[in-house]
Amino acid sequence: MANVSTQGAAPEDRPQPPGPKGLPFLGNGLQLKRDPLGFLTDCARTYGDVVRISLPGQAGFLISHPNDIEKTLVAGAQNFVKTSGGQQSRPASRRREQDLMTWVRNFPSDGEAWLPEKELAHPSHRERRQIQPAFHSERIEAYAETMVALTQRSLATWKDGEIRNAHVDMTHLALVVIAKTLFSADAGGEAKKLADAFSTIIAQIVSQMVNPIQIPNFIPTPHNLRLRKAIAQIDGFLEALVRQHRANQDINDLISILLKAQDESDGAVSANDWRYQAMTVFVAGYETTALTLTWALYLISENPDVEAKLAAELNAVLAGQPPRAADVPKLRYTEMIVKETLRLYPPVWLLGPRTCIEDFEVGGYRLPAGSTILISPWVTQRDPRNFEHPQIFDPDRWADESMKQTPKFAYFPFSGGERQCIGKSYAMMEAVLVLATIAQSWRLKLAPGARVEPQPLVTLQPRFGMPMKIAAR
Ligand code: HEM
């Protein structure tokens, strides 16, 4: 499975990457749809580091060697645009005239999102520049108190001995945390409604990835009506936010940054653009963090030795006090649990497909312009060449000095390069603080008979939820 040696070979003499046989027209589409995690893992283990996968109507290549991933995400980044369901989005100038429905139709954003044409060579630079201040380290530290307070508020409703769906709890919690820290909104009462609206929207995003042919928005099918209602709910939430921010100029958060950027843009940014960005941060931020926490609670419950070590660390560092930002660097084992959870259950199990603009040389192969590149943290982070006993949940592996020898892109739950997750530090801090706050006072055990199976949608969901029996410490 080592990279193919290409020394001395002219590009045209190089072999084509191997790959599984596919059906006429459908290629490997059915296998990919039926069991994406199993199929992609088998492809990498059977055919090597660059695998040809025929997607309906296009050539796809799975890249799974850390060096090749680094080359794609870092050195070669300028050669790629992010695509959604094999379709390239429309030019920004036309997109600006459209509404949130268009945002949904085009998510995840590609290199052209919201950018004037002259900036296209530097995908996403402008949008990142705008929202970056909300993620500076001193700002993130200021969010710690709110994260812990909201977790405590949510835990106050828990009753000893009951069975709760940890996935639902973590989803509502992560949603109210983002709403409060970045948007200054108290979404407590609305958490369920907003979470349901977002999941309708996310289901739509998944559906259009799988089925590029969609019934147009204006036809009132039950599905389109549900989607419109969900979008109207989110839109109403954002409208209320903007009124609140316009009325109180002292608020200093992500929304105020976006509104200021819009006011200063001299019409270069449309009235809707701040909404697109707010929606992107919301969708990208709350579900991923909620899933990290859900999978972490599950893995802790299945590993009593890990649970005991976690409890010991929390006692030693916090001595019964709620965690604060200053405690985060001391909660090393808690952080190792989060890192190991993100290795085994990366919420973004497949990075947004990227299309190469020009031919791309990688792993000894030359991939033609227009190819779709697939990169999966799930596949690479479970590769035995990168991690010893990769299927085992072992937070202690992160304390091992030998881990420093592991190639950088053997582990990339937040992606890497210029499109890497902007919320990485925010998410890590939130996960550590929330986990510490929960585990300090509650012990969670997977409910008897519960079925646990990862379901790879846009993010890696627990297919049957995560019913857990809770006990007060
Ligand atoms: C553990 C939690 C999280 C994980 C695992 C995660 C992972 C990722 C990954 C892998 C990407 C790149 C996707 C790609 O290239 O296809 C990404 C992008 C992004 N993330 Fe995160 N993320 C997390 C939390 C957050 C949070 C808390 C926020 C904001 C509060 C956030 C905001 C974003 C944004 C704005 C993008 C760019 C989206 C785009 O370019 O379309 N993420 N994240």
List the helices and strands and how they pair.
Blueprint: H1 29-34, H2 36-47, E1 50-55, E2 58-63, H3 66-75, E3 80-82, H4 92-95, H5 100-106, H6 125-131, H7 137-155, E4 163-165, H8 166-183, H9 191-210, H10 222-247, H11 254-263, H12 273-302, H13 304-318, H14 332-344, E5 354-356, E6 360-362, E7 365-367, E8 372-374, H15 377-381, H16 424-441, E9 442-446, E10 454-456, E11 460-462, E12 467-472
Parallel strand pairs: 2-8
Antiparallel strand pairs: 1-2, 3-5, 4-12, 5-8, 6-7, 9-12, 10-11
Helix pairs in contact: 7-8, 7-16, 8-9, 8-12, 9-10, 11-12, 12-14, 12-16, 13-14
The structure holds protoporphyrin IX containing FE.
Please characterize this protein's 3D structure.
With 473 residues, the protein is α+β, with helices and mostly antiparallel strands. It has a domain at 1-119 and 349-393: Uridine Diphospho-n-acetylenolpyruvylglucosamine Reductase, domain 2, CATH 3.30.43.20. 47% of the residues lie in helices and 10% in strands. It has 16 helices and 12 strands. The strands form 4 sheets. Strands 1-2-8-5-3 form a 5-stranded mixed sheet. A 3-stranded antiparallel sheet has the order 4-12-9. Strand 10 and strand 11 (460-462) form a beta hairpin. Helix 12 packs across helix 14 (332-344), helix 12 (273-302) packs across helix 16 (424-441) and helix 13 (304-318) packs antiparallel against helix 14. The longest helix has 30 residues, at 273-302. The chain is globular, with a radius of gyration of 23 Å. The relative contact order is 0.16. The model is unreliable at 1-8, 85-98 and 109-123 (pLDDT under 50). Protoporphyrin IX containing FE (HEM) binds at residues 108-109, 124, 178, 280-281, 284-285, 288-289, 292, 347-348, 351-352, 413-415, 419, 421-423, 426-427.
